[in-house]
Amino acid sequence: MSDVLYIEVTIDNKYYYINDIDKINNIIRIIRYWPLKSFSNHILDGEEYQVKIMTNNETTEYIGQGKYPKGYITFKNLIGDNYD
Is the CA virtual torsion 66, 68, 72, 78 positive or negative? Predict the structure, then answer.
């Protein structure tokens, strides 16, 4: 994958724009090293999510629905609390 410029995350119509390199790396690590559906473990149960990873030559998109309530806190910690 080329260098990631930024990541866009939408969770139940809440939009997050992430260009902090450490947060980007954390999210990429989750998506790359776990099965794709495992990302949904980090989103509140029932919430729809969409993740777009933008590089200079491609966009990768993940869409799904959350599964485990406690995982949402983990995801919020990854992207930071000041995105609300």
Answer: negative
